[in-house]
Amino acid sequence: MAKIEVSTTVDRPPETVWRFLFDPANAPRYDPDIISAKQTSDGPVAVGTTFEANRKKEGKVSFRTMEYDPGRKLTWVVTSPRTMEGSKESITLEDIGGKTKLTNAWDLKLGGFYRLAGPFVARSLRKTAGAQANNIKSILESEARS
Fold first, then answer.
1. Among the listed residues 62, 79, 76, the one whose alpha carbon sits nearest the alpha carbon of residue 21
2. Looking at the predicted structure, is the pLDDT value of residue 30 above 80?
3. Residue-wise pLDDT tens digits, 80-101
4. Which of 34, 40, 66, 144 is deepest in the core (most CB within 10 A)?
5. From CA 117, how far away is CA 113, in angstroms rounded?
6. What pTM does this model have?
7. What distance in Å separates the CA atoms of residue 144 and residue 126, rounded to the nearest whole number?
8. CA distance 126 to 5
9. Angle, CA of 64, 137 and 51, to the nearest 5°
10. Residue 100 near residue 77 (C-beta atoms within 8 A)
11. Rounded CA gap, 46 and 65, in Å?
12. In 1-146, where does DSSP find H-type helix?
């Protein structure tokens, strides 16, 4: 329905960015709409691993990993709620001389009322994704200076 992509460059190596991003405890630090996040399946992260985020606006959102290339790329698909089911998010990290180009891309699929409000939801998600990227950059770069 809508494709969204935002990128930023973080002055930290990809391994540092990856560890930060994929520690569910850090999600509320860079996304103020997330109350909590956790892995809901056992074992190490791989294709098929499931996650859940408790969000202020949407409530519980569940994801399943579709693509997993450690340190480089993770793609997951929303499995609930039904109004967002099938939406995909890909997070890609690219090493650019010891810094990291972080790209967050969404293929947004909306159902129910959200389908009617699609352009507004897409605009809001684009703004949120940009803010998350800036927050990640700010947090990791300020921690490096500490």
1. 76
2. yes
3. 987 788 899 999 999 999 999 9
4. 34
5. 7
6. 0.86
7. 27
8. 7
9. 15
10. no
11. 7
12. 14-21, 27-30, 113-116, 118-145
